[in-house]
Design brief:
Length: about 350
């Protein structure tokens, strides 16, 4: 499966840059990643060719990467963005989107797998569109949708995010035409498309008026992506409401539909087709409470006594640790012109899940 190659690589590929970014040591069991030693990247004339070599790509993807300066950098942006957003959205959850166990997770068809696919493809779509409008890619420029006054927008130096190009390119890049036969492949493709759609749905048209005292004699409009946090938030909601898939209909034409359970378990109507915006999964998730091949478990995780300790610690209880922290207090402005503060001490209590 082509589409699996890239997204799995995206979900996994941690180049040194992003590893450093997330405070990782590099010993997180990432041996399946392309080695970054000098032996794997023969000195190429152009820097971007070398960059393409560092990414885990299929042959066709590598060719596209080499043909498009700026793409490798954009792919790396997408990796950073998706890892950061996933960890942000799952900060207080038992599965916190850490990199440990990700390889095992991606082999399964869990809700978490669904989220990883969606957030990765969303990050790719977003980063590609941004790279286009920022002029970091040679083959695409500003948004060129015919319904907008783009020529005017250009005159005013406003550039829309080019989502049309980015989606088209992404589909080519992922080779989505080859729909796999097995259920898992269909599920992965569905979730990938949920991610792309989430970015698309967040596209807003922004307009600005020009003219004498706001008369709006001339109006320029352009398309703008929502901040990626917004997309991440929506995908997290979709994760919370993900639909379990029972089977796929078999269609001779090669087009099949996923058959899911009802969204709400209390309704007893017949199985339904998931909506294009639903994240879908095939297996129930483990609890993520204890160390497993999917996660490190929740021992040692800090929690909030009021809000999250009970759930996060899986009923094992939590340790309480207090420490003194100093901070500035009783600050006064002195004539003239400085602020005088005292140092106060305060006890800070930290709760963390027991073993
Ligand atoms: C996730 O939880 C593990 C412990 O289970 C912890 O070691 C790790 O730092 C956490 N990662 C993030 C990104 O919060």
């Amino acid at each position: 499966m082509r589409s699996r190659t890239l997204l799995a690589a995206l979900c996994l590929s941690l180049l040194p840059v992003s590893a450093a970014y997330f405070g990782l040591t590099g010993k997180e069991g990432l041996t399946h990643l392309p080695s970054l030693g000098p032996s794997t990247n023969p000195a190429q004339g152009k820097a971007h060719l070398k960059q393409c070599d560092l990414l885990k790509l299929s042959r066709k993807q590598k060719r596209l990467c080499q043909r498009e300066p700026g793409l490798a950098e954009t792919l790396r942006d997408a990796v950073r963005l998706s890892v950061m957003e996933c960890q942000y959205q799952f900060l207080g959850e038992r599965w916190n989107c850490s990199l440990d166990g990700r390889t095992s997770l991606l082999k399964r068809g869990l809700k978490e797998t669904a989220f990883l696919y969606a957030v990765s493809s969303a990050a790719l779509t977003h980063s590609l569109a941004r790279a286009c409008s920022a002029g970091r890619m040679e083959r695409c420029t500003c948004d060129d949708s015919p319904d907008l006054e783009n020529r005017k927008a250009w005159q005013w130096g406003v550039c829309g995010d080019n989502l049309k190009y980015s989606t088209k390119f992404l589909k080519k890049f992922l080779g989505q035409k080859k729909i796999g036969k097995d259920l898992r492949a269909k599920v992965d493709i569905h979730n990938t498309n949920v991610g792309i759609k989430a970015v698309k749905n967040g596209l807003k048209t922004t307009c600005k008026c020009h003219g004498v005292s706001g008369s709006c004699a001339v109006r320029t409009c352009w398309k703008q992506l929502s901040p990626f946090h917004e997309t991440g938030r929506i995908l997290k909601l979709r994760y919370d409401d993900a639909v379990k898939i029972l089977s796929a209909t078999n269609d001779a034409v090669g087009h099949s539909e996923l058959v899911g359970t009802q969204r709400h378990s209390h309704s007893h109507s017949s199985p339904a087709t998931p909506r294009p915006t639903d994240l879908v999964y095939v297996e129930d998730s483990p609890s993520f409470c204890r160390p497993s091949k999917y996660s490190l478990g929740t021992a040692g995780r800090t929690c909030s006594r009021e809000a999250s300790c009970d759930g996060l610690c899986c009923g094992r209880g939590y340790n309480t640790q207090s420490r003194m922290v100093t901070f500035s207090c009783h600050c006064q402005v002195r004539w003239c012109c400085y602020v005088e503060c005292q140092q106060c001490m305060q006890e800070e209590v930290i709760y963390s899940c027991k073993q």
